[in-house]
């Protein structure tokens, strides 16, 4: 029998919604384009990074899902935050001791694994790449996949399928807009001879050097490796024009050394020089805030990046996504499967302003990160620190 609710995407928001519905005994199915849970873990590893899960949003969702204790058992509470300028002068260092951190970190892949393992295996259908979502003459929803398969008869399709959601066009014609910024990300492994030098910069957490409209990010992961990111202002089509360069990791490192960060100090350029592995190319997009004003459309809704993708400069994207899942699940439980339109309408009434607020704050933070005099403006605005 076809379950009443289909969720597109097995990322944090889609999986959290699924888990919450599972706890409430509400049938659902998740369709994910990754071929398997193993492939999903590989993708998450390749894109790297860690997520800080906030006590007043993301952790609330995990608590309602019955997963907070498991999360706490693998989260890291001792992460440090260090902010320096392009020359390496440190202006801010935050250290957490004695469990005083209400924003503990977890590797992206570990959070996804925690959520995947909390849902019965038959509830997640792997290897389903969506082509379109359509409303049928009887008012039900159908999902059309790129390999020709069609699944139909759903009362509600939830787009948890990220920035280029296949559901979004049913509620708005707006599309994410390019921010002007790319991140090129790679890693430094524990066995690297340079590993100890990175430890001296980032310690147990995050080291961020910003200035001259550029950024270097170093972030410790649970296995002792470090996620390395280089932020630059580049044209939107840079990745297509530089496809050959991107495929050659050695050449891309040389390009970063000669064209991107040539005038930065050796402590920073050594991070480029000694990083290892392939690069993941990440252009940043955000939804225009004026587009987050649609009227509820029967049979569909959006959560997470599908609804309000933005740049990552306030560190709240995943928390907003998890909270979306919680709020939608609460409304579905409250109104039941026979009044899903009202459930979605009440969910969207709170989600849309929350998404607008996130986009606006992240855009402002990003402007200060990549300003010519950074980190001056960012430190004053977000940390209350005045520097000359």
Automatic annotation (TrEMBL):
UniProt keyword annotations, A-Z: Monooxygenase, Oxidoreductase
Oxidoreductase found in the keyword field: yes
Protein name (database record): Monooxygenase
UniProt source species: Lindgomyces ingoldianus
């Amino acid at each position: 029998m076809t379950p009443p609710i289909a969720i597109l995407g097995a990322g944090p928001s889609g999986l959290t919604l699924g888990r919450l519905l599972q706890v409430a005994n509400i049938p659902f199915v998740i369709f994910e384009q990754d071929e398997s849970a193993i492939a999903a873990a590989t993708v998450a590893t390749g894109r790297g990074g860690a997520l800080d899960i906030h006590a007043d949003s993301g952790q609330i969702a995990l608590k309602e899902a019955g997963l907070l204790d498991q999360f706490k058992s693998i989260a890291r509470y001792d992460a440090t935050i260090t902010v320096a300028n392009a020359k390496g002068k440190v202006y801010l260092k935050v250290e957490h001791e004695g469990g005083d951190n209400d924003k503990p970190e977890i590797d992206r892949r570990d959070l996804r694994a925690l959520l995947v393992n909390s849902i019965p295996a038959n509830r997640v259908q792997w290897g389903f790449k969506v082509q379109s979502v359509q409303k049928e003459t009887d008012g039900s929803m159908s999902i059309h996949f790129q390999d020709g398969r069609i699944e139909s008869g759903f009362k509600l399709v939830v787009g948890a399928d990220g920035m280029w959601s296949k559901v979004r066009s049913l509620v708005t014609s707006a599309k994410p807009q390019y921010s002007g910024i790319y991140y090129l990300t790679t890693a430094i492994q524990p066995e690297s001879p340079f590993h100890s030098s990175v430890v001296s910069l980032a310690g147990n957490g995050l080291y961020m050097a910003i200035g001259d409209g550029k950024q270097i990010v170093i972030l410790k992961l649970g296995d002792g490796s470090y996620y390395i990111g280089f932020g630059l202002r580049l044209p939107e089509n840079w990745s297509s024009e530089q496809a050959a360069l991107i495929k050659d990791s050695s050449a891309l490192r040389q390009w970063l050394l000669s064209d991107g960060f040539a005038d930065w100090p050796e402590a920073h350029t050594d991070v480029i020089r000694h990083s290892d592995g392939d690069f993941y190319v990440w252009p940043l997009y955000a939804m225009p805030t004026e587009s987050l004003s649609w009227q509820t459309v029967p049979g569909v809704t959006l959560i997470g990046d599908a609804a309000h993708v933005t740049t990552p400069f306030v560190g709240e994207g995943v928390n907003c996504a998890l909270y979306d899942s919680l709020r939608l699940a609460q409304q579905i439980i409250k109104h039941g499967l026979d009044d899903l339109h009202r459930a979605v309408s009440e969910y969207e009434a709170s989600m849309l302003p929350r998404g607008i607020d996130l986009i606006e704050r992240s855009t402002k933070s990003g402007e200060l990160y990549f300003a010519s005099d950074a980190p001056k403006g960012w430190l004053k605005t977000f940390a209350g620190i005045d520097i000359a």
